[in-house]
Amino acid sequence: MNSYFAQDDWRVSPTFTLNLGFRYDYATWPYEAAGRQTNFDPVTGQKFTRVSTTHGQSLVEPDKNNWAPRVGFAWQIAPKTVLRSGYGRFYSLFERAGSEDQLEENLPWLVNNSVSAANNNTTASNIRLRTGINLSLDPSAVNLANIKLRAVDPHAQMPEIDQWNLGIQRELPANMMATIDYVGTKGTHLSYLMNLNQVFINADGTASNVFPYTALGPIEFRSNGANSSYNGLETTIEKRYSNGLAFRTSYTFAHAIDEAQEHLFSGGSNSFLQNSRDIRSQRGRSDSDYRHRVVASYDYELPFGQGKQFLTDGPLAYIIGGWRTGGILTLRTGRPFTIFASANNNALGGPRVGGMVNSFANCLSDPQVDVNRIYSGGAYFSPAAFAAPVSGHLGNCGRNTVEGPGLTDFDLALARTFPLMGEGRNLEFRWEVFNALNTPQFGLPGNNVSSSGNFGKITSLAGDPRVMQFALKFYY
Q1: Model pTM greater than 0.70?
Q2: Which residues contact 141 (CB under 8 A, 6 or more apart)?
Q3: Looking at the domain assignment, is residue 464 inside a domain?
Q4: Residue 153: which of 190, 117, 186 has the closest Cα?
Q5: pLDDT band at 197 (very low <50, low <70, confident <90, very high)
Q6: Residue 218, domain extent
């Protein structure tokens, strides 16, 4: 991995500063030192190893087009007002998205087989440390249609992120400041997982019985054809610490859209597609699309004790003086999730689905109508708004069409520092309460229409109930 960059700040005038930068990144894909890896080329339909390919020792050609410009400016348009803007491009040089670090788990490098001993007094299949492990299985004799192959696009590109912003900041009286920012992000060549050997889907949305690669089983394939976008308006009012008080309040109104979820994120949609050859049909709200979010925090030194406004002396001043408190309030709307119909997965994927197809449900009515209402049986939404598709047909609901429960959380802290004998020696006591109001933080409801027992019902929490902790810190 190599990275090169140059950056310069140019003060064009006393009120205008220009920031310019440029970066280039080069990184090969990870590879196994001894070359024990196998990849798959969807064009030729053949597996290949290091000795039989021109794609390099990683079995994936390195992306050499990772040019990343940066530009920004700060303009003081008035004595207490600054306008700022910036743009930058970034690359994800390595991400854990599935198969890219699992190519060594393909044949012939990895063989999964179960053996058992005749009785408890002998070893299974005569396996002994001095002679090595007897595979009892010939990798060349394995029926490839019965196993899963892991693969990465040999011509994969690095995921590319473009970010830009425009904001204005104004200094207010009483040591306060207000900021309004627009923030945008665009993702290109984002990675996603698919079953490359899913049966073809007919034009009428029904599954055929034709496999692209008849001699192979399911193929967990990592591709780079997904896109994303984010647009957000962020407003902030902040008071710097003075007279014993500091606070910050922010509100964000945002919308995020993408075509593939974060693979290791336990969100509302699954990694694998309903139709592996139609990534655009996955386009919908991002798993992390929180439309509204408010965060307010404060730090307040109580006005009691020596040098303060009230109770400046006496025993009571010592007892209640020197205390400070702080808190964080978070309010946000829920995150979206997808309604699935798992009973249709095998029909859409064919007998070689390998658990890598996720069928949408059918939407019979607007899924957002009366959401949050508790229906009979304790459902979060009306189960009657959804149905399983006819077996072998694509579901029409789409991805992330229902919004889950929102969040209300308030964390509180109370602390005091006691000076001890000796310079610089202090003892700090802290009492912290998380979810101080003990507000229930509900998880997502059951989202599988094929599972009638929990469909639509909330059976888990997204956060803990009230938790308290105490701490003593000695500074010296």
Answers
A1: yes
A2: none
A3: no
A4: 190
A5: very high
A6: 2-114+143-291+333-406
Q: Is residue 435 part of a domain?
A: no
Amino acid identity for residue 313 in this structure: D
- Give the E-state strand segments of 49-207 in sequence order: 67-78, 81-91, 149-152, 160-172, 176-195
Q: Are 432 and 468 in contact (CB under 8 A)?
A: yes
pLDDT digits (tens, 9 = 90+) for 159-171: 999 999 999 999 9
Q: Environment class of residue 296 by beta-carbon count within 10 Å: exposed (0-12), middle (13-18) or buried (19+)? A: middle
Tokens, residue 295: 């965060």
Q: Is the pLDDT of residue 61 over 80?
A: yes
pLDDT of 285 > 70? The answer is yes
Whether 192 is in a domain gets the answer yes
- Burial class from Cβ neighbours inside 10 Å (0-12, 13-18, 19+) for residue 9 reads exposed
Q: Is 95 helix (H, G, I), strand (E, B) or coil?
A: coil
Instruction: Give a yes or no: residue 170 inside a domain.
Output: yes
Indicate the number of domains in the chain: 1
CB 449, CB 361: distance < 8 Å = yes
pLDDT in tens, 387-403: 999 999 999 999 999 99
Which DSSP string corresponds to 165-218?
A: EEEEEEEETTTEEEEEEEEEEEEEEEEEEEETTPPPBPTTSBB-S--SSTT---
Distance of CA 242 to CAs 149, 170, 415, Å? 62, 18, 18
Residue 465 binned pLDDT confidence (cut-offs 50, 70, 90):
very high
